[in-house]
Write a structure and sequence with these properties.
two-stranded antiparallel ribbon; flat; 42% helix; single chain; 4 helices; mainly alpha
Length: 92
């Protein structure tokens, strides 16, 4: 799928588009998740429920500057890791 972006200075064409990559994640350390998986899941579900709540969701979305929340896994970030490796980027 080609998408064109036009502005006054240049034209750009996408040559590849990844699957959606979650941004601004809430994360827990692996050792915390391993020790407390129920708390980790309960927190994830609670955040999504608050965000989707008709009464409080709008305030929560404004606070987070996000329109939606979804579950994400480490595997979903694999395209970013592959790009970093392919480009031989040195991350600090």
């Amino acid at each position: 799928m080609d998408r064109f972006v036009k502005n006054s200075k240049s034209h750009a064409r996408s040559i590849w588009v990844s699957e959606p990559i979650p941004n601004d994640p809430f994360v827990v350390r692996q050792d915390f998740y391993d020790s407390y998986p129920r708390i980790s899941h309960d927190l994830m579900f609670a955040l999504i429920e608050i965000n989707d709540d008709p009464k409080d969701g709008a305030r929560f979305k404004k606070l987070l500057s996000a329109s939606s929340l979804m579950f994400a896994t480490s595997q979903q970030y694999e395209p970013v890791r592959e790009m970093v490796k392919e480009l031989d980027l040195k991350l600090q």
